[in-house]
Design brief:
222 residues; five-stranded antiparallel β-sheet; 3 helices; 12 strands; elongated
Length: 222
Amino acid sequence: MGKNQLIASSIMVSLGFTFLGASAFAQTSSNYAELACQREIVQKMTNGNTGSFLRFNDAVRESFVSNAERRIQGEGQQVNTDSNGRITPSTFNYDCTVNTSDGRVTAVNSTGSNTSTSNNSSTSTTSPTAAEFNKEKAISMCHRELKDEISSDSQINLGGLLSLNTGRELNFNDSAETYVISNAELGVRGDAVIRQAGSQKSISYDCTVNVQDQDVTKVSYR
């Protein structure tokens, strides 16, 4: 068994399922970024379903994103077997962004179409990139997280006075803007005013929103 086949077999076993012909996972995945991408695609598209198998085509495209990131694109086939033993094949395209400095896959997208003769409906599992993500939604997520952060801060200095976290209001200006950090992360920054008991304090805030998980991973203000 070749090196790539051995790696592929180990990955399949670790994910809890097997596939006839161990080389089916990544026959030419000597490149770690390619292998990391395909591993994420397997996890995303099978979601632990032991009746679902993927096969990746040999043709894989790698392109430069930044000094620390590479984009991996390719095609493959997915075979699903339902509880009645009915087999449904489909084809899919995949697209990943891999951080080459730490090996993290920061963005995973896949699109597929059902090729069964009895069901020709198309399915899509595409996740938006940071540039495609709804900006108003990102701002709203950031504001909600910041409000929670401000309300839970036991003491905030308002004009030289330490204010307890009771009766505190946070008012946002219309200056909020978004900016792309990476394919998977969108930044939100702006200004707001904390008001309480006749005192107030102007702050600047900054959030990081993971558009794949739709979660605010970082929030700060000063």
